[in-house]
Amino acid sequence: MSITVDEPMLTKGGAVIVAARPVSDSEWHSLQESGGNANPLTKEFRIRVSSPASVVELVYPESGTYSFKLEPIFDQVRLATREIRVGSAVVTDPETKQRVDWRSMSIIHVGGIVYDEGWARVLSSTFDLAFESSDEGAVSVQRFAAGRILSLSEDAIETFVQDSESDR
């Protein structure tokens, strides 16, 4: 999966949380890829994130694995990233409000002028509060063939991602 980082995350920084869950091989084979991959055994998906607090939830075949890369929307921009946490989580689905198990989760800090690595660590512990919120504008959902992108709004970031610095 190619995850293109767009503005405002490209300048401000933030974090991309990638959560993956396995699906049956037959379900996987029925998905339409968005990349131009010539290998029939793999699928390539291309998505774009812009919120400084972006969650990519994706599926992969139970008999296989998945990989992802982050790249800037502009070729001349250098993207500084660092994986800050790997693990799993049980979170509230922002659409159904049901608890779901994310067996595989990676949190990647994207460097920028506003959101530092410490902020990304705080987000990794608090993003689920926005998912649990009754505010329908807290999280926007964008679907793609292999999953969805969950983007926290600016208000949700200010409300739920509590940072010790007051200038954000």
Give a structural overview:
- The chain has 168 residues and is of the alpha/beta class.
- 19% of the residues lie in helices and 40% in strands.
- It is built from 4 helices and 9 strands.
- The protein has helices at residues 9-12, 25-29, 117-132, 154-160, and strands spanning 2-5, 14-23, 46-49, 53-61, 69-72, 81-92, 99-110, 139-144, 147-152.
- The strands form 2 sheets. Strands 6-7-2-4-9-8 form a 6-stranded mixed sheet.
- The longest helix is centred in the C-terminal third of the chain and has 16 residues, at 117-132.
- The relative contact order is 0.25.
Characteristics of this structure?
168 residues; alpha/beta; six-stranded mixed β-sheet; three-stranded parallel β-sheet; 9 strands
Q: Main sheet: which strands, in order across?
A: 6-7-2-4-9-8
Derived structural class:
alpha/beta
Order of helices and strands: EHEHEEEEEHEEH
DSSP summary, beta strand count = 9
Strand count, sense and closure of the main sheet? 6 strands, mixed
Q: Tell me, what's the shape?
A: globular
Strand content: 35-45%
Low-confidence stretches: none
How many helical elements?
A: 4
Distance between the termini: 31 Å
Round the mean pLDDT to the nearest integer and report it: 90
- Determine Rg (CA atoms, Å): 16 Å
